[in-house]
Write a structure and sequence with these properties.
By secondary structure, the protein is α/β, with parallel strands linked by helices. The protein is built from 7 helices and 4 strands; from the N terminus they run H-E-H-E-H-E-H-E-H-H-H. The protein has one domain: Rossmann fold (3-Layer(aba) Sandwich). Strands 2-1-3-4 form a 4-stranded parallel sheet. It starts with 7 loop residues before the first helix and ends with a helix.
C-alpha cells in the first residue's frame, strides 16, 4: 500500500496493527552519463514495490532531496545537496507527525553511501532524528523518568519486540554488508548499481551511453546487466524479509 493512496480508516487500521511504514530516504545525485539523477531513490522505491508483493507494508512518499555531499562532483553536474543539520531538523518534523499521530513501526530505508554498513552524514542524521523524536515522545507521553518507572520493569524482556518504544523508528540500509557480499559488491553508478536500477526501472538506464563514461566509478557500468540486477533484487528482498518486522 502507498500512503498517498490510502483513506483515513485504512490508515488507522494499519497503525493499530503496526503494519510497517517505510520511508525511502533518497538523494538527487549525478550517476554518470547512463543512469538517472534519482538512482539512489529509485532503487529503494523499486525494491519496496517488489517487497510489497511479499509482505504487507505501507510505503510513504520518498524524501527525494538528501545529504548527497559533493564527494562525487559539484552542483555543476546536477547533484543537489542538503546540509545534514537542516536535514536532520526536516526529518525530525516528519517523524514527529508520524509518531504523535500513532505510527509505532517506522523504517527509514537508505541506499546512498552505505557500502559495508558504513554510516555517513545522511544516515547518521536520520538515526539522530529518530532517537531524538522517540525520547521526546516518551517524555511527553509518559513523563520525565519514564524509563526508570516500574511500568518499564519488563523493558529488557521486550527489548527485541515491537513493544520496545525505542524501536518504534528504525533506520536501515537497502542492503546490509552481508547482502552486499552475497551480491558480489557495491558501487556508485558502476556494474552493481546500474544493474539494480536496470532490473527495477529499465527505462532509467541507457546502456548505449555506458561506453561514453570516463570517470573511474562509472566505467564498470559497461559490465552491468538487468539479469545481475534481478539477482541483486532477490537478495535484497530476502534481507528485507529478515529485517522488517
Amino acid at each position: 500500500m502507498k500512503l498517498i493512496d490510502m483513506f483515513f480508516r485504512e490508515i488507522e487500521d494499519a497503525k493499530q496493527r503496526k503494519v510497517p511504514l517505510i520511508i525511502p530516504i533518497g538523494t538527487m545525485e549525478y550517476h554518470g552519463l547512463h543512469a538517472s539523477l534519482g538512482t539512489d531513490t529509485l532503487v529503494i522505491t523499486g525494491a519496496l514495490d517488489r517487497f510489497a508483493l511479499r509482505r504487507e507494508i505501507v510505503v510513504a512518499p520518498p524524501i527525494w532531496y538528501g545529504v548527497a555531499s559533493y564527494a562525487v562532483c559539484g552542483p555543476e553536474k546536477n547533484t543537489i545537496h542538503v546540509d545534514c543539520d537542516p536535514y536532520e531538523i526536516y526529518i525530525s518534523e516528519i517523524l514527529k507527525s508520524l509518531i504523535y499521530g500513532g505510527w509505532k513501526n517506522i523504517y527509514l530505508v537508505f541506499h546512498h553511501q552505505s557500502e559495508a554498513d558504513g554510516l555517513m552524514p545522511m544516515s547518521l542524521a536520520c538515526m539522530k532524528a529518530a532517537k531524538k523524536v522517540l525520547m521526546r515522545y516518551m517524555e511527553d507521553t509518559r513523563g520525565l523518568g519514564w524509563w526508570g518507572s516500574n511500568d518499564m520493569k519488563d523493558y529488557y524482556e521486550k527489548l527485541d519486540t515491537s513493544d520496545n518504544p525505542l524501536s518504534y523508528i528504525k533506520t536501515i540500509q537497502l542492503m546490509d554488508e552481508h547482502t552486499q557480499r552475497l551480491i558480489g559488491g557495491f558501487d556508485h553508478a558502476g556494474e552493481y548499481e546500474t544493474s539494480l536500477l536496470a532490473a527495477l526501472y529499465p527505462e532509467k538506464v541507457d546502456f548505449s551511453r555506458t561506453k561514453d563514461n570516463t570517470e573511474w566509478f562509472a566505467i564498470p557500468s559497461q559490465k552491468a546487466s538487468a539479469e545481475l540486477g534481478e539477482t541483486m533484487v532477490g537478495h535484497i528482498l530476502d534481507y528485507l524479509e529478515r529485517t522488517v518486522k
